[in-house]
Amino acid sequence: MSELLRWWAPWALPVSAPPARDVLVTIADGRIVELEPRVSREQAIERFGDDVVLHDGCVIAPGFVNAHAHLEYAAYDALVDGLSFAEWIGDHVHRKRRLSPEQMRASADFGAVAALHAGITTVGDASFSGDAAHAMHAAGLRGRVYLEVFGDVEGAEADAAVATTLERLAALPSSELLTHGISPHAPYTVGEALYRAVHATGLPWMTHLFESPDETDFYRGGGALREQMGSRGFALPTWEQSPIHALADILGPHVVGVHLVQAAPDELEVLAATGVGIAHCPRSNARLGCGALDLARVDRAGVVVGLGTDSPSSAGPLDPFAELRTALEVHRAIARDARWPDLGRLLRMATADAAAVLGYADLGTIDVGSHADLIAVHVGTCDDPLAAYVLGATPSDVQSVLVAGREVVGRDRTGLEAARARAADARQLLALPVRRAGATA
Ligand SMILES: [Zn+2]
Asked: What's phi and psi for 370, nearest 5 deg?
């Protein structure tokens, strides 16, 4: 057994159990090997002296699992507003094309470093360029990079698109912490044959599904999204039935469905029956006016839901605390219920349930045997640590971040500021205005 690491804090949020007081967590070989509640600070010092890390005023929690992100767009939060989904995606494609490969990589690096500093330890990333893999590997994040594919292609063309994707994946880093998947982008940019060719690789896959009302209109043969994509020269896939029903025979627990805001009950039942998990991104859905996931209906269908931050270009910074609170506010407002969803459920959606959506075992809880992906977050004096954490904490309260038992981020923020500075050129280019039809400037 390798050297032991011991963390003590006045509180822990195990997720799999109620909050615990005065907790000593012992870690070895990347896993939690012992969990002792009711060990006072004095007892911890008496037993282990300098060999215990004291996180005074903190909770120890599982690191956040981000079920869906686009780290390479970290440099462009808060640049545009007031666009419908169809308008936003047109704007996004336009701005993204301005970046050089080096600038895209700098933006991805900033995303990976910012995620860790915010307490995110695992990411399921849908990556356009593949830079997210380099960035996650360099930063020490756990996760899976799903390389994006696009196209309404069939037969040899679909096989060629997949072969190219596999070649690109083979050139990306992988490790015990970092694995690969493919992301057929969405059924409005990817035809059924390409979905099937992706599935035939045997790799896990992630796809955007039923995000906006514009997307629903698209499958009915009209609407602003169809016009927007058509005007940009994309071949537009046709679906004779709902893509979820059309693809039902290849769905399974290896598939992550992102959004599902517009999904009907019969479509959610297909997801439940096949074991597809939902990556739920409430900030992006709200800001783009897409609506909100019907969480009560999803629960009734029996589909697992994990939170994701989505793209900073639509949702804002990589802040898992903000995502949690938006989820709380949106779902309680809809339910007109001050107690549902409760704080424990919300935290589970951002940790253990997001891990389940991505197909990870032993991740997102503080249990003996779980991966030691832990964060210490300052909450100060409190009576209810779950409330203090979910309602009040921010990325700047994160004191230490462990991935597989190794500290990858501490209190020093200079690494974050350096990564932000390296992405400044990318941000400057992304910020240039987009000329729109009919606009005078
Ligand atoms: Zn997305």
From this structure: -75, 155
